[in-house]
Amino acid sequence: MKYNQLGESDLHVSEICLGTMTFGNQNTIAEAHQQLDYAIAQGVNFIDAAEMYPVPPQESTQGLTETYIGEWLVRQERDKLIIATKIAGPGRNFKWLRDGKQPVDRKNIEQAVNDSLKRLQTDYIDLYQIHWPDRNVPRFGETIYDPNKERETVAIAEQLTVFADLIQAGKIRYVGLSNETPWGVSEFSHIAKQLSLPKVVSIQNAYNLINRLFDSALAETCWRENVGLLAYSPLGFGFLTGKYLNGVPAKSRLSLFQGFGGRYGKPNVEPAVAAYVEIARAHNLKPSALALAFVRSRWFVASTIIGATTLEQLSENLESVNVSLSPQILEEIDAVNTRYPSPAP
Question: Which residue, of 137, 140, 207, 275, has the greatest Cβ tally within 10 A?
């Protein structure tokens, strides 16, 4: 396992991060702890959660993921682990979370942090992320910005000021973004420098073989601002394993949560996935290993977030760290991307 410095922080995160959004829904607390134990034994030191998890979000399970992690975390050497979690930003209509109002303001940030600390049973959070920007941006599967959707927002300076106070209080160490845009990364960075407030060190966005939107403007922005990508959904909701090419398997995420994978129902997803699976098999690789190794190979990726519902899946995903893609394979991947550019943005 390799470890990468995260932005301008002193955090050195494992190149694979354990994502936990299945804990509390598809995984019991015993299964969650088995995954955590196994991942740590393989060199993973980075665990990512969110206050809204597990997914799909609902009132009856909200917070269970952090609770499961907390029951495990109290038995670990805390200073050897990097724990990340997130505040749910506005726009998702979670009526059960803080009375359905989630502006990223002082009241909400402080309550969200304190609640997460309690569930996680820890004194501090290493990386605290804004799950969605507190402003009008395209949502999952959308690619067009619509100014007609503008609404009242919390100023970025105000958000960063609260985070500065929480860092001073020792409750969080660093700040990150999620589902952000080039403008957002630039503005957070600019205001932090201008007002001597905490600079964001990471961005957690979707990135995979069928969603490479990060390659252009966001890649440049993050290079210039020294912000590392935490790539989520590297297997494209499981599509890049090839398991959906012949229908929807029983007990798969797509069968359990129908309609949840809408961004993957677009016209060129299936032929693109089939082409990537063909490349993997031609080079005696598992399709999942090809997909994960590709994400890991990108210069802007600080850590690749993997999630699994079984230890077998987790083991297979972690073994991908031993796979390096040759220039020939990368050329073949780029050829498919030219034919089917980012079919699942």
Answer: 207
Output the pTM of the full model. Answer: 0.97
User: Taking the alpha carbons of 332, 335, 339, 345 in that order, is the dihedral positive or negative?
Assistant: positive
In whole angstroms, what is the distance from residue 35 CA to residue 330 CA? 31
Q: Residues 300, 219: contact at Cβ < 8 Å?
A: yes
Tell me the pLDDT band of 248, cut-offs 50, 70 and 90: confident
CB atoms inside a 10 Å sphere around CB 135: 21
Instruction: Answer whether 203's CB lies under 8 Å from 227's CB.
Output: yes
In angstroms, the CA 333 to CA 273 distance is: 11
Q: Is the pLDDT assigned to residue 140 strictly greater than 90?
A: no
192-240 pLDDT, tens digit per residue, is 999 999 999 999 999 999 999 999 999 999 999 999 999 999 999 999 9
* Residue from 15, 13, 6, 10 nearest 292 by CA: 15
Give the active site residues: 53
Cβ burial 181-205 (10 Å sphere, 16+ → b, else e)? bbebbbbbbebbeeeebbbbbbbbb
For the chain, where are the alpha helices, taking DSSP H only?
Answer: 29-41, 64-73, 106-120, 156-168, 182-195, 217-225, 253-256, 269-282, 287-297, 311-319, 327-339
235, 291 contact by CB (below 8 A): yes
